[in-house]
Every structure is written in C-alpha cells, then in structure tokens.
Design brief:
This protein has eight helices and seven strands; from the N terminus they run βαβαβαβααββαααβ. By secondary structure, the protein is an alpha/beta fold. A seven-stranded mixed β-sheet has the order 3-2-1-4-5-7-6, with helices on both faces. Helix 1 crosses helix 6, helix 2 packs antiparallel against helix 6 and helix 3 packs across helix 4. The radius of gyration is 17 Å and the shape is globular. The two termini are about 15 Å apart. It holds the Pfam family PIG-L. This is PIG-L family deacetylase.
C-alpha cells in the first residue's frame, strides 16, 4: 500500500522539470486539481527549451524566450502563477553539484511539502519520458530533496549569504518512470490539461486534434491500469516518502 500524503496536509508543491511542457505532459491534470483545492504550486524549469521546436528560421535564443512565454501561459491554465527558470542549456544537462545546489536553493525558498520531478530511471516500456535531460533533472532534484535541501551544512552559502534555512520536503512524486504506485483521476481536469498543452504552440500545434486523441488514449490506459471505471482518465506517478 502506497503511503501518500492527503492533500489536506499539503500547503505547497514544487514541480522541477527539464523543459517547458514537461510538467504539462506529465502532471498538469493533477496540478489543476491541487490548485483548485487551494494548494500553492511553483514550477522550476531547468532549461528554456531552446533546442526544441520546428522553426528553423528562429534563433535558439528567440525559441527559448518564446517557450518561456508558452510555459507561463500553460501554467495559468492550471492555476499556477509562480514559474521560475534556471536557464541551463537544453540538451546538455547533467546532475552536477551546481544543478543540485540551484534546485536546493528553490526548495529552501518555496518550502514545499511535495516535490514533483521526472524519474531518474529509464523507462523501457515507454521511452519518450526518458530523455537524458529528464533523467538528469530527476537525479539532481531527488538529491536536492535528500540530502541537500534538508542538510544545513550542504551548500553553506545558501544559509550564510542568502539566509535560506534547511527544509525537508515530505514527499516526492516521480513522473514518467518505469514504476507506478499511484494514479490520480484527472477526468474532470482534462480540458485544463489540454489547454495547457495547446499553449505550447511550438511543440503541439502540428498535432492538431490528434493531441486530444493521443492524451485520451494514454490517460485512459492509465485509468484502466488503476482499476477506474471506463471513460475515466488518470496520470501515473511513483510516490516516494522522503520525510
């Protein structure tokens, strides 16, 4: 039996993702439910997604700026207004000490009860979530949750120079990995998830109506795996107790 915090025990959530649109593909329906219940959600996007898109006439800097705007618009669709970017280079991420420190800094700033992140494990059943940048962010973010952010002696400059006290996040939700132990019924928030993904015009406009069909197929399969009734839709996670 998976031990999952009741949402009534959660005041703040931090979602740490590699690229603009990652959080919307993996968790936007779930996040829409959280914000509707009054939970504060912050997005931390490690890159600007400048290596994505299909417009060869646009510079990479222009693409990054556009994708930041798209992520802010997508966040608004699900009730999130705190969106932060670290500006690391797209496609070149590694789980370095610097990246761990930068994520730990935001954990100490936001002081979340729950942190959502990509799984650091490769998923051989469904390869697309296992982009190297996703796995690198998952590894760095998990290390930032434990042990970095809670250890007052890790990155002492965060306390000495920035006044950021140690903070223990109680729970991690991993998205896109090979192990699933928790499903969230997002049927009632499907339209908000779809709107968020459509906000990423550079990534999804070419899919047209196929985007909704793809999502319904994937989310419907998740719901079936969770034992939910026909017609329901669900997002999958591996929940890890980190208290």
């Amino acid at each position: 039996m998976t031990n999952v915090l009741d949402d009534s025990e959660v005041r703040r959530v931090l979602a740490v993702m590699a690229h603009p649109d990652d959080v919307d593909f993996g968790a936007a329906g779930t996040i829409a439910g959280w914000t509707s219940r009054g939970i504060e959600v912050t997005y931390l996007i490690v890159t600007d997604g400048d290596a994505g898109g299909f417009d060869d006439g646009m510079t990479r800097a222009e693409m990054g700026a556009l994708r930041r705007d798209e992520q802010r618009a997508a966040a608004a669709c699900v009730g999130v207004d705190d969106v932060r970017f670290l500006g690391y280079p797209d496609g070149l991420l590694e789980p370095t000490f610097d990246l761990r420190r930068d994520i730990a800094r935001v954990i100490r700033q936001v002081r979340p009860d729950r942190v959502v992140m990509p799984s650091p494990e490769r998923n051989y059943e469904r390869i697309y979530p296992s982009h190297p940048d996703h796995r690198a962010v998952g590894a760095a973010a998990l290390d930032a949750v434990y042990p970095d952010a809670r250890n007052p002696y890790a990155y002492p400059e965060l306390l000495a120079d920035e006044g950021l006290e140690a903070w223990t996040a109680r729970e991690v939700w991993l998205s896109g990995g090979p192990t699933v132990n928790h499903y969230v019924d997002v049927t009632d928030n499907f339209d908000r998830k779809l709107a968020a993904l459509k906000s990423h015009v550079t990534q999804t406009a070419h899919m047209g109506e196929g985007l909704a069909e793809m999502l319904r197929g994937w989310l419907g399969a998740n719901a079936a795996a969770a034992g939910l009734p026909d017609g329901r839709l669900a997002e999958p996670f591996q929940v890890v107790d980190t208290a």
